Amino acid sequence: MAEIDARLREEVNLLGTLLGDTFRAERGAAFLDKIERIRKGAKAARRGSGEGARQLAETLDALSDDELLPVARAFNQFLNLANIAEQHHRIRRRAPGEAPPFEERVLDELLERLRQAGHAPEALARQIAALDIELVITAHPTEVARRTLIQKYDDVAAALAAADHDDLAPRERQRVQQQLQRLLAEIWHTDEIRRHKPTPIDEARWGFAVIQHSLWQAVPHFLRGVDELLQQRCAQRLPLEAAPLRFASWMGGDRDGNPNVTAAVSREVLLQARRVAVELYLGDVEQLITELSMQQANAALHERVGQVPEPYRVLLRELRQRLFATRDWLDAALQQPATPPTAEVLHDNAALIAPLALCHASLVECGMAAIAEGPLLDTLRRAHTFGLFLVRLDIRQDSSRHAAALGEITRYLGLGDYLAWDEEQRVAFLERELDNPRPLLPVRYQPSPETAEVLATCRVVADSPAASLGSYVISMAGAPSDVLAVELLLKEAGLERPIRVVPLFETLDDLEHAGAAIDRLLALPGYRARLEGPQEVMIGYSDSAKDAGTLAAAWAQYRAQESLVAVCARHGVELLLFHGRGGTVGRGGGPAHAAILSQPPGSVTGRFRVTEQGEMIRFKFGLPGLAEQNLNLYLAAVLEATLLPPPAPTAEWRALMERLAQDGLTAYRTVVRGETHFVDYFRQATPEQELGRLPLGSRPARRRSGGIESLRAIPWIFAWTQMRLMLPAWLGWEHALACAVERGEGALLQEMRDHWPFFRTRIDMLEMVLVKADAGIARLYDKRLVDAELQELGQQLRELLRQAISQVLRLTAQGSLLENSPELRESISVRDTYLDPLHLLQVELLARSRRAGGETDSRLERALLVSVAGIAAGLRNTG
User: Fold this and answer.
1) Distances (CA, A) of 792 to 556, 678, 687, 822
2) Given Cys at both, which of 286, 296, 510, 607 links 505, Cβ 3.0 to 4.6 Å?
């Protein structure tokens, strides 16, 4: 087993020791001794010690009700601190001669490869400047960390960075340690669990905080790095207006199955985003006013402000005044929606950018480029990336809600029932009304509350500045009428400008027919005439994997993209694919760089849109250094996939992939749909029922009442992850790979893994999730929580897990999982010492809760939620 880096181990030990000192100060030495016995017992048990397992079980069994919560909190915080230390280690100062991490050198190495492949330096610079990558941050129903604690965790990381100097004096090092001690005490004495479910506006503020505390700093630093590389490798500069990476959000706009997201909520979130942006720009402009005291300016600046002694300050003070006016109006509009703006209020990005660009051009022209390239350049880059609106808000709604609204409208107008019409009738009606200049809805029409909400959302879209909005995404789309319906409803709301209306193909059946649906849509003359810019299509990873298993879903997603690329090429329309990935392998998650490079050739052509969700936002973008690394990965991957696309699969690979997908689908559905007692087992063996009671997110765990089909993909996966069976991420693979081997196709599987990025990435992700699975932990949940007559099913599922591991080891020619990546294996396995006690505590808490019929006291309920949070922290990508 590889050793963890000595510096990382030292910092983990330091944080653990200081946290232990905090326990001792509050609860005494006896409590700390008990925590140590549990930790040592778990460590010994993991190494196969029967005595260690006995010590662990006995110590946990002896805990009183009053001790359950503190013990759960202790191990939860151990895991969070280990994550912080590991995150800091990725971005820490490097010793002289020490190679930078892959994330920091990836773009430089790619540019050199591209130059060697014959790409002209000037063309490379133009391609990077023209990249259109949008990361869409989304709320996570299983994100449990409070913003208060996230900020304290960030402060711990900053303290570790302050200590990361060899030349600190003893007194300076002591001060850092004292600061860490204080921060850990603050963390320990802060309630890590919300008392109430967050609202959609709370979730949006969480997203804004990531920008405020990390991305606001990271983005201009990242772009400086890109600019420097272009100068070194291509003798070119990154244009000032270039914004290859931008951000959008679903927080406050995603109303699919979430009744808490209303038109009023979306409107408030749009205003709140502008309010945050204004405050951030005010901070920047105040700094610039202080720094830009120069007198010399070019003719354009003097023409703008007159012959004044300090022209830069005069212009920036004008901008500051407009920002003040904008802030005052936003404050008033948040209280009184109908408040009209004054003439000074900023409404478009150009009004923000123009004075900054004028200052920059003047400084450069007057020989002060060194000043222009300082904080002013950073603010200008932010203005082009974030604009006045911080993030562009996407609106998402289920297609059935639009159809129901139109059904109500057509019945009211005496036109028949839209819901009863076939697709041809719907399209004919929609196209006719979209071309009709008169309104469809009479003034006296009084819609039902459901239809009124749909129409109100459309009015928010129509009334909002274009730059504040992203796309209108239609869940469960399957036909052209789903897109036209939204266009008509937006027209009725008064929208007179284009907005991308995006069908989301989610289920296996929808993915199979995605190309045909877009083909029919683009063949409509009226639609083509209205289409401005690319045709955006969203690929759903969560529901397709829940519907068919990850193997069949991954191949369906791949083929859907191939089909969409061909269809759009045939129609002469640019395609923009929007990837709805989650944090876990079971929802299309995994390393973004590898995932992008495994997409079908031609599917990434300088444009890329993808969701970043919940806790993965924090792990990837929560610290400025981490954010810079991950922005580098995204830019490099999209550039490489555009200019050096992966090979198309051979006919043999494609045929085998079809067989694998079919075998995987059969095996997955045989268990999930065909096993009579599967739902009962799932609800007993996992904390699925309890998760629905906990204050985890604003969105309900279910779209409607019913069985597995009614459960959202995120809690479906989250529940299996908590008890470590990880079933949705691997079920079906074990059977499909075994069938291929039995057919004598082992060599072809190996060839696909060696030469086809798509297949290699799927196997790598499968291996990563299998190393996090733990049959022994899953068995403990069965033994304590599952009825005797259902335990055989649990044993069968664990046997399938064993088979999946065996097949992956055969394919990768390893003796153990991640044998070829020992550092990653150790990073995952080292957490088991802290995870095992939490699993055992969770099993006990679930048993007590169920004995009480769900009416547990608040201490046990909170301890259960802390165990959920701790396991999620330990496994990282959980939902």
Assistant:
1) 33, 11, 19, 34
2) 510
Question: Is residue 359 within 8 Å of 292, Cβ to Cβ?
Answer: yes
Q: Where in the chain is the domain with CATH 1.20.1440.90?
A: 265-389
User: Which of 140, 213, 491, 735 is the catalytic position?
Assistant: 140
Q: What is the DSSP string of 111-124?
A: HHHHHHTT--HHHH
Residue length, the chain?
Answer: 879
Over residues 159-183, the pLDDT tens digits come to: 988 888 878 898 998 999 999 999 9
**Distance of alpha carbon 555 from its chain centroid, rounded?**
22
**Does residue 57 register a pLDDT over 50?**
yes
CA dihedral 350, 352, 354, 357 (to 10 degrees): -120
Classify residue 830 as left (phi > 0), alpha (psi -120 to 50) or beta: alpha
* Cα pseudo-dihedral 101, 102, 108, 110, rounded to 10: 170
3-class SS at 539? strand
Which of 491, 546, 593, 735 is the catalytic position? 546
Phi-psi map region of 379: left, alpha, beta (phi>0 left; psi -120 to 50 alpha): alpha
Place of tokens 């300090």: 310
C-alpha radius of gyration, the chain, whole number: 28
Task: Reply yes or no on whether 735 is catalytic.
Answer: no
Contact at 8 Å (CB) between 569 and 603? Answer: no
473 forms beta bridges with 396, 502
CATH of domain 265-389: 1.20.1440.90
Please tell me the predicted confidence (pLDDT) of residue 619: 82
pLDDT recorded at residue 706: 52
More confident site: 89 or 389: 389
Residues 704-755 have pLDDT tens digits of 555 555 555 567 888 999 999 999 999 999 999 999 999 999 999 999 999 9
- Token readout for 822 is 């020992």
